[in-house]
Amino acid sequence: MRYRLVFRNRTDDAHPVHIHRHSFELVEINGKATTGIIKDTFVVPGYGRVAVDLVADQPGLTLFHCHNQQNMDYGFKALSCYT
Hints:
Blueprint (H helix, E strand, L loop, with lengths): L1 E7 L6 E5 L4 E6 L2 E8 L1 E4 L4 E7 L4 E7 L2 H5 L3 E6 L1
Antiparallel strand pairs: 1-6, 2-5, 2-7, 3-4, 3-6, 7-8
């Protein structure tokens, strides 16, 4: 299945976001459509918005986090699981 994930940054810091074990298509940055850009990490600009399309084709545990260590220390990370 293909899912659209939308990330909205409510701070002035840019956040490099990574989703383990998956690649995804970057489909929008701050309201501007993009196509064909495949990534596993992307930057959500300060006060910005990014949308990605992720194909959920690797069941099991998946870690999502910000690559900024201080942000991870303060909880900007999540472990999810799907079947």
